[in-house]
Amino acid sequence: MRRILEHLGRSVPEPAARKGAESNFLSLRAEAEKGFAENMLPMTLIKILRPVKRFLQRAKRKLLSNSTIRNLRDELNNEIEFEDLRSHEIMLADAIRMNAYHAAIRRNVNAGDVVVDLGTGTGILSMFAAQQNPKVVHSIDYSKVISVAERIASENHFGNIAFHHINSRRFILDESVDVILHEQIGSALLNEGMVEKTLDLKKRLLKKSGKILPGKFELFLEPVCVKNDYRIPYLWETRTHGIDFSSAKDSPESEKCKLANYNWHPNPRSAVDYFLCDAAPILAFDLNEIGDPTEIPKTMSASRVVRRHGRMDGFCLYFRVIFDAEVEFDTSPFSPRTHWDNLLFRSESRQWHEGDAISYTLEIKDRLDIESWIVRVEGGAPGVCPSDGQMSGFRVK
Length: 397
Ligand SMILES: C[S@@+](CC[C@H](N)C(=O)[O-])C[C@H]1O[C@@H](n2cnc3c(N)ncnc32)[C@H](O)[C@@H]1O
Known about the structure:
seven-stranded antiparallel beta sheet, single chain, five-stranded parallel beta sheet, alpha+beta, binds S-adenosylmethionine, Rossmann fold, 3 domains
């Protein structure tokens, strides 16, 4: 201790004071050692766990590059997701969805029909169908929620519904079916396996004169201007208070960022300011007309004339569900809100003028995995970013 204090150029205290200083020093050292030991353990653990985590991430990526394993994972996730009653509460509270299905079932399910409800959930569509006096409604679901559906149907005195706790792919029947009812509509229309699941049942069970309800769908991908206060530029587009990030464009991280352009905004519906072009579907199909999922293209392209000039920040994805000539709804950000909301695909901001043509493509590598959906667009002048001043909504007191 004496040597340390001398080394530090401090005066060596007299014996009594020295005793106090020594015990202070010892308690400080004990505390420091304790703190060091407490920090060491997590630091050592992190050192060990970091490569383990990287290894697991690589192994997961490798496993999921196999489409059969990916499909199994998606089915399992789907089954577990729909065990949770909250997901059903959200769907039942969506008045646009419920009114459309109710009206369409009343118009399209007839007395004496054999109906299959693919993915019955709480049984709501089966109960709507059962009110039409069909021969029978077969309600299928692979999730445990089907026991709730069965109880509700019994308490509401429906005797003509048969419940099957099974995956639709393994469901067989000894009679053919007049109507396949379903609501397998994902947030990006195709990403819940709707096409694959309904066409599988259609091939095996549906009468030639039978129908899939709903059958017609349109997918929209509209160039949009995002409201200034919602806009999130790419890092290399960012200019703030005189700091220029443009050199970030050439970094390898930016390449990954450019491709992962899906759903970059937490609140896409509120973010959309306006469409630059007149909306038109980039894809339209009728499940009643096609026989195999491969008939739905995986690459789509569009060329649209700009009707309202301005900055394009990305694309808004939404869809229209058409039950028949009179019943339909859509999920456009300018239509009444449904629980599906919208998705935004970001592009670098570009300035377009009235009469310009915007050409773009949507490539869907894996229908079930929206992160593999890539939107590409060419042309346009670099976008004009709102300046710092324009965006300021604060006061300096
Ligand atoms: C979006 S929810 C719709 C529930 C209900 N039809 C409605 O409109 O409220 C989809 C339901 O389909 C079930 N499902 C999805 N794929 C299925 C399959 N291949 N076989 C059986 N059930 C399935 C899920 O467990 C879930 O309950």
